[in-house]
Amino acid sequence: MNFEETYHCFINAYFGIRELDQYLYKEYVLQKIEDYMKSYVQQNPKFVYQEEEVFQVIQTSSMKRKLQDALLILPRIQVDMDLILFVKHEIQNMEE
Questions:
Q1: What is the reported pLDDT for 35?
Q2: Four-CA torsion 58, 83, 32, 8, nearest 10 degrees
């Protein structure tokens, strides 16, 4: 994945986790995703934050896509395996 694709993956992961109402430690995980994303973005000096781009990614991605992207990001930020299994379960429920 290139920089932009990875950045979009972060956005989707953040908003996918944010929409999981059943997860108790959501705020903690969201903060970890934010911190990791900030660190990632600082590595690219040419990066320019564009709110329209974030809004477009949020609007054009389904909840399933957001959670699939979360599965790519969550191991990077070293979250509890319970959350990863919970996200997988949510994706499977969407497919039924």
A1: 93
A2: -30
pLDDT of 96: 59
Q: What's the pTM value of the predicted model, to 2 decimals?
A: 0.87
The C-alpha atoms of residue 84 and residue 70 are separated, in whole angstroms, by: 8
Low-confidence ranges of the chain (pLDDT < 50): none
The two structure tokens encoding residue 18: 């944010």
Secondary structure string (H, E, C) spanning the chain? CCHHHHHHHHHHHHHHHHCCCCCCCHHHHHHHHHHHHHHHHHCCCCCCCCHHHHHHHHHHCCHHHHHHHHHHHHHHHCCCHHHHHHHHHHHHHHHC
Tokens 């994303």 correspond to what residue?
37
